[in-house]
Hints:
Layout: E1 7-12, H1 16-26, E2 31-36, H2 39-48, E3 53-57, H3 65-74, E4 83-87, H4 93-101, E5 106-109, H5 114-181, H6 186-218, H7 223-238, E6 242-248, E7 254-261, E8 273-274, H8 280-284, E9 291-293, H9 306-310, E10 315-323, E11 326-335, H10 343-394, H11 399-413, E12 419-425, E13 430-437, H12 441-466, E14 468-470, H13 483-488, E15 493-500, E16 506-514, H14 522-567, H15 570-581, H16 587-618, E17 627-630, H17 631-648, E18 652-656, E19 663-666, H18 668-684, E20 691-699, E21 702-709, H19 743-753, E22 757-761, E23 769-776, E24 807-811, H20 815-827, E25 831-835, H21 838-847, E26 852-855, H22 864-872, E27 881-886, H23 891-900, E28 904-907, H24 912-921
Parallel strand pairs: 1-2, 1-3, 3-4, 4-5, 18-20, 24-25, 24-26, 26-27, 27-28
Antiparallel strand pairs: 6-7, 6-11, 7-8, 9-10, 10-11, 12-13, 12-16, 14-15, 15-16, 17-19, 20-21, 21-23, 22-23
Helix pairs in contact: 2-3, 5-6, 5-10, 6-7, 6-10, 7-10, 10-14, 11-14, 15-16, 16-19, 17-18, 18-19, 21-22
Amino acid sequence: xxxxxxxxxxxxxxxxxxxxxxxxxxxxxxxxxxxxxxxxxxxxxxxxxxxxxxxxxxxxxxxxxxxxxxxxxxxxxxxxxxxxxxxxxxxxxxxxxxxxxxxxxxxxxxxxxxxxxxxxxxxxxxxxxxxxxxxxxxxxxxxxxxxxxxxxxxxxxxxxxxxxxxxxxxxxxxxxxxxxxxxxxxxxxxxxxxxxxxxxxxxxxxxxxxxxxxxxxxxxxxxxxxxxxxxxxxxxxxxxxxxxxxxxxxxxxxxxxxxxxxxxxxxxxxxxxxxxxxxxxxxxxxxxxxxxxxxxxxxxxxxxxxxxxxxxxxxxxxxxxxxxxxxxxxxxxxxxxxxxxxxxxxxxxxxxxxxxxxxxxxxxxxxxxxxxxxxxxxxxxxxxxxxxxxxxxxxxxxxxxxxxxxxxxxxxxxxxxxxxxxxxxxxxxxxxxxxxxxxxxxxxxxxxxxxxxxxxxxxxxxxxxxxxxxxxxxxxxxxxxxxxxxxxxxxxxxxxxxxxxxxxxxxxxxxxxxxxxxxxxxxxxxxxxxxxxxxxxxxxxxxxxxxxxxxxxxxxxxxxxxxxxxxxxxxxxxxxxxxxxxxxxxxxxxxxxxxxxxxxxxxxxxxxxxxxxxxxxxxxxxxxxxxxxxxxxxxxxxxxxxxxxxxxxxxxxxxxxxxxxxxxxxxxxxxxxxxxxxxxxxxxxxxxxxxxxxxxxxxxxxxxxxxxxxxxxxxxxxxxxxxxxxxxxxxxxxxxxxxxxxxxxxxxxxxxxxxxxxxxxxxxxxxxxxxxxxxxxxxxxxxxxxxxxxxxxxxxxxxxxxxxxxxxxxxxxxxxxxxxxxxxxxxxxxxxxxxxxxxxxxxxxxxxxxxxxxxxxxxxxxxxxxxxxxxxxxxxxxxxxxxxxxxxxxxxxxxxxxxxxxxxxxxxxxxxxxxxxxxxxxxxxxxxxxxxx
Length: 933
């Protein structure tokens, strides 16, 4: 097989560097890249070669890209060659339109994306290769048919001559025998010889006619003319009154006259007749041999058509027109006189029928080839449109722009100016209008009702299975309630196509509307489905892009709020420290400053705890410690927790509890946290002097807790997302009341962990809000995941003065933190040593024994776990109290502390009273059971 010739691609640019770049991107073993440095040079190249695609720079000296493209399009040879414009300048819509009006298939800006350019050019290379392949196959098919026809003619001629030779030989033998036996009948013998010569002459004439028709068929004469000439030749050569050619239907169930000679025009047989025994022609198709009938009036094998009787036909002969394993019809001759048709007559008809079969097959091959070319042209146009849509969609990830592009493409394809694109909400199982064209607000409402009826009549499963088409709304009873309004809106027919992703997920539908009864063509339906699949992917991409942008925006807002909230407490702490340095301060003021600093430190600790709680709940690492509790007690503790903030804001708080007991199986601390968060939230977002109400109601199997306020309310668009993590309302931007926007997330998660639910209601901005918590009164909820250890409750020792001083080693790389802790411990009467790294701590432990080691985990060099293991391995440290004093507080951190040999795990900032209680309880040389808090 001849190697496939490389495809040529023309690169037109006046800059050598640009040509080098294009060659580097597009080079490949299946193509040849041809350069042209100007428009004139490009025209010369186009005269010499056929190109799969032309990549042309727009801005060139002399003849620019547009001028060159126009001249290329004037030539028939290059009229359909794909042209891709490239430009390094900013292009206006007018320039882009001009490029496409000149027949360009794309318009790209430099620098181009190599992968995109290679992909685009590969499409046209493949199309060019397929077109060339079809052309070569067509030429090869025609050549093979010509050779086969010539071979068949030669073979037919040889058989004809052989048959004639045999007959002539036999005839000559008969003549010779007759001469020997009947010498006296010389005159009669001469007459018989003359008859034989006439037969030979007639055979030669018939052979010449067959050869002539074979040549005519090769010359490409039209098939109808060839058939007319054939029936006329049969009529004259066989000296009969009538001749005809019949055609077998594609289904093979009837035959009809295709060409005829001698028939009365008014009686021409235009009515098809059945095959088999139902007609003369149909019966002829059952046999490979010629059908010869001497007298149709005596025939019983088949039904004689009335058409033949009306023409007075007596004798008839018919042969099949057959080729390549199929029958095309019959070639027939009819006589009004009774006459026997000879074998010569049958041979003549068979030879002529063979020529006709070849011509008919060739014509059908040409028609099939033309059909294939037309299909390829349509497919090319479809692919070009699809590619253009893809290019437009890829230029934007904004969902509204994507929807408008898709809807415009579909309405343009179907030849209408009205359409609606609806997106599918999986949660609500509902379609809603996202884009429309050609409708004002009133008619659009009607169209939405019609489309909704369409969905209800078809269901989502029907839409997914292939869409719904209503050719005429007047004929469909489903739309009767909306028919008048739909007709007034100019809607008579509707076509709905699903938007499905590659995975088969329904994204939405595209509905197009027509002002008259209409059914889309198969091509339109196929293309709209392709558009729909491509559009579904881009819509999903746009949705994801919007979600990512929204998540990124919320993340940025949260980080800004986090920075604000972490910095805010530092200001009063720093001011309190500077104030206490003053020389004239009194003890009362110092105590107030200390309380302020302590309160702000606890506020920072709560912020960190909230963040950790969200993380633990999200990862499933919180275990509820459920027990039978009294809800009223939890309510009272939550009120006490939030009372200071409520009083500082001057709010009026009312608490309403049922008189009966409210037992509940729950984690008391977490239920208290839920209610405290809701009360704090109400206090923060209610202007000073507002009203807050906490109401508890017993509703049988459900306990309902409602927290109402007269605050600033919640905007309607925020209500669905108010419990989402890091969701911030505009009310929070000034941060006047603090908070990270995670408190409500904690509320929802903790309530759901108890098997309950929480909802929020608000009539809008400035109208207050109400949070409703519903908790089931049920038992047996199984706790999950790793437990969250308790934090020691600060308390004063029973007799602090009797606790003996202890030798304590403090290890912390934070010098300020270590110094302050050492001063605190010395103030309690303990003996202190301080180290800021692991090596120093080990050296000190070798020089003296310690009763207690307070050890940070995150240290330079050796970490706290490694130091603890080293200390435990030393003699004399078996009974030493090892306490991890660290900012790491996850369950995994506590587990590792226990494995390393720590007795306790305290998370910074540690309450000084809790630390003092721990040290006072510990008695050196009396080893207690290890516990981690």
